[in-house]
Amino acid sequence: MNSDKGRSALLYLDSMITVSKKMQSPEYLSKAYRNKGVYYYYGAEYSKSLDNYLIAKGYAKKGSEIYYNINSCIGLLKLELEDYPEALKLLLSYREYLEKNGLTNSINYEKCLYNLAYAYHVSNKMDSSNYYVKRGFEQNLKSKDKDLYASLSLVSGINIFKQGDYNRALPILDEASKLFKQNPNNVQNIALAEYYIGKVLYHTNNAKFLNSFEKVDSIITKTKNVSYELRNTYPILIDHYKKTGDKEKQLFYIEHLLSVDSILSKNNKVLTTEINKKYDTPLLLKEKEVLISDLSSKNYTLFWILGIAGGVMIYLIYVYKENKKKLKNYQSKADLLTEDSVAPDSIEIVEPQKEKPKVTLSNAKLEQLSRQLNEFEIEKRFLDKKINLELLSKEFNTNRAYLSRSVNELKGQNFSQYLNALRIQYIVNELKTNKNLQKLTIAAIADEAGYNNVESFTNAFKKITDTLPSYFIKALQGDKK
Predict the structure, then answer these.
(1) Closest listed residue to residue 420, CA positions, set 462, 475, 379
(2) Distances (CA, A) of 303 to 64, 285, 300
(3) Do 160 and 170 touch, CB atoms closer than 8 A?
(4) What is the pLDDT of residues 323-369, one digit of tens each?
(5) Residues with Cβ < 8 Å from 386, sequence gap 6 or more?
(6) What is the rounded CA–CA span in Å between residue 218 and residue 215?
(7) What does the DSSP 8-state code read for residue 60?
(8) Which of 94, 162, 179, 238 is an S-S bond match for 150, by CB 3.0 to 4.6 Å?
(9) Any idea what the Cα angle at residue 151 is, between residues 146 and 156, rounded to 5°?
(10) 208 secondary structure, DSSP code
């Protein structure tokens, strides 16, 4: 998906969310956030995808179709982490829900069958995968969906390859690749098809396997979207060029493999769990240094790496001890917060403030702005995610600089601090009185408080209350037991 289409899609999804909020429909909100999570999933932005799935689940009615659908989406993320048992559990639960409720003629049911076929394939359970491929093709005879037909063909071809029937697998994989190329959004499926075409050619000693693997590398380099499955392209390329003595190519693909491992670690927030023993990261780094030394006559030593590793270990021990202290402090502050409300005019600002020249504002204008700010607070306009100094100054019929100085003089804070104080005061008091709000995810609570993401909400909450939202909720629920 190009950047223009991506921006348009995000604008459309955000519009869906805005409309759903105006309608005050939890069902529409859960679907809108689910769709936004799917968008980020296909872009391999797994952290953002998960955030939106969790917000969607916070709005979804437990036991509903959308609830199970969101769980199945999270199951696909579990596949990226190679947590196969949990992924299969979530996907199977969705299939059972659809069958139990007579929804087997829906396109979602066909997609569910394909997801199960794919999940069993990556977990190397061929019999189960073939079972769901067969059921998927039966459903596809009714829907005639070309993308799902191509996807089912791909998994079928992969399974046949894994069973050792290379001659039968190749034409099926070729057909799937051609079908995917008809839709430019299927670039990741093209990469997977080309990877297994390359594997067939490699196992049949056909030198054309290099063409397929280079296509896979080209797609990964362009999109920065890679799976653990596609990662296996690089050890084969590195081995090939090592045997042929092409050190330049060998180094080239080692660099790419290191980059791929970095992407996997960043996107999935975990280190790669299964690394080819021959080409795991420490050995790659060591071999990279040897090759660079051979090509450029530079000599790097292993002691440098060991020194850094030792320093990192000492730092991690220090961080661990400091974090333990922080966690105790968070719990203590959370307990205190359950007893006292947070008032914006009593908040202590942690960061030092630069002194600004005193500007005298007219009493009449200050009184007018004071009334307007009071109305702003009473109407809870601070919960609007789009509100900022520029918009508010226009509404108050003044300019940005004048409003900024007025807020400083009237509230003793800059506008950003004032806005955060209002939002955190509001959500703290809401959490104290609303048990249902306590049951939502942190992402959904952040949304209720007027924040665009969990990180901004958590940072503001911690700065103002000196504890974390999760600790505060835990303290509140502990008080009520």
Answers:
(1) 462
(2) 58, 13, 9
(3) no
(4) 666 666 777 777 777 775 444 444 444 443 444 444 456 778 888 88
(5) none
(6) 5
(7) S
(8) 179
(9) 120
(10) T
